[in-house]
Amino acid sequence: MLTRDPSQDRGAGGNARESNLQPPRGSCGRIPLRTCAPPAPRLPASNHSGSPKLGTKRLPQALIVGVKKGGTRAVLEFIRVHPDVRALGTEPHFFDRNYGRGLDWYRSLMPRTLETQITLEKTPSYFVTQEAPRRIFNMSRDTKLIVVVRNPVTRAISDYTQTLSKKPDIPTFEGLSFRNRSLGLVDVSWNAIRIGMYALHLESWLRYFPLAQIHFVSGERLITDPAGEMGRVQDFLGIKRFITDKHFYFNKTKGFPCLKKPESSVSPRCLGKSKGRTHVQIDPEVIDQLREFYRPYNIKFYETVGQDFRWE
Ligand SMILES: Nc1ncnc2c1ncn2[C@@H]1O[C@H](COP(=O)(O)OS(=O)(=O)O)[C@@H](OP(=O)(O)O)[C@H]1O
């Protein structure tokens, strides 16, 4: 099953194996690769190769791998404005739920790209999927990874708010957060808590990918300075800085930056209702306890990535 994000208002247009395979032939795209395999021979039009004019379906050279509720949809929608990027609008969940369907299936989902364009997809659950780093490495060790991170306490509340909007009968956030609240024992088996232990998850990625191949977007700065954050994303992808502050305006009603397309007559575009929900009110004491809980993980994370995200 592909996940269709309700906020997304634009679509885009042999079995994978569990071993340390070399990257598939011809999966290099335009990003310089260290171990780029020679391109596969041209296949007949009936296969996944398309007409050269329309481009070809390629495996992604870059992935937004997380984190859930970090601002991944905003990054995807902003970056796909770039003429050198084509992105899948849905979340394919290939490296977690659909891996058994194989790389050909995965490739068939991708939009067609020209030689000069990067293919991109986003599935936020990859970041916390144990097998994802190895599987992505086996697709191509040169895959560029983007992780959008956000204060883990706010992220957890955002995650809970989303679940509550679908299942109004779930227990309270305060109740779910602790194994024993009076002893301050946080329930790390609850996904909403676990996802925010970024330092822990990052370790699995660093077993396969060098830090230089992972770009961290600040979910907070993405809201206060979208052009600045997207400038760094474009640099990381090795594409020109096409997306600038001219592409954004702050929508007061939405309370978030939205896209405008200065060079066209297309109307401005904000993300949908599921992005930027009003969060559930949480007991401030619980927020403090969770801040304390996350502090060592955050410090470790800052040290590892060499950036202070200033989550208080
Ligand atoms: N420009 C813009 N417009 C709307 N929303 C924005 C934007 N930039 C970042 N955000 C934040 O993105 C949060 C949702 O994160 P994700 O897109 O990663 O969510 S999801 O995992 O795909 O469900 C969403 O979280 P909530 O505010 O908790 O709903 C937003 O805070």
| CA(first)-CA(last) distance | 37 Å
* Assembly level: single chain
Tell me the fraction of residues in β-strands, as a range. Answer: 5-15%
Small molecules in complex: 3'-phosphate-adenosine-5'-phosphate sulfate
What global shape is seen?
Answer: globular
Task: Report helical residue fraction.
Answer: 25-40%
Number of helices: 10
The radius of gyration computed from the alpha-carbon positions, rounded to a whole number of angstroms, is 20 Å
Uncertain regions: pLDDT < 50 for 5+ in a row?
A: 6-50
What profile does the largest beta sheet have? Answer: 5 strands, parallel
| CATH homology-level superfamily | P-loop containing nucleotide triphosphate hydrolases
DSSP strand tally: 11
Category by helix and strand content: alpha/beta
SSE string, helix = H, strand = E?
A: EEHEHEEHEHHEEHHEHHEEH
Structural domain count: 1
Task: Find the CATH topology.
Answer: Rossmann fold
Mean pLDDT: 86
* CATH architecture annotation: 3-Layer(aba) Sandwich
Protein name: Sulfotransferase
Membrane topology: Single-pass type II membrane protein
Family: Belongs to the sulfotransferase 1 family.
Keywords: Disulfide bond, Glycoprotein, Golgi apparatus, Membrane, Signal-anchor, Transferase, Transmembrane, Transmembrane helix
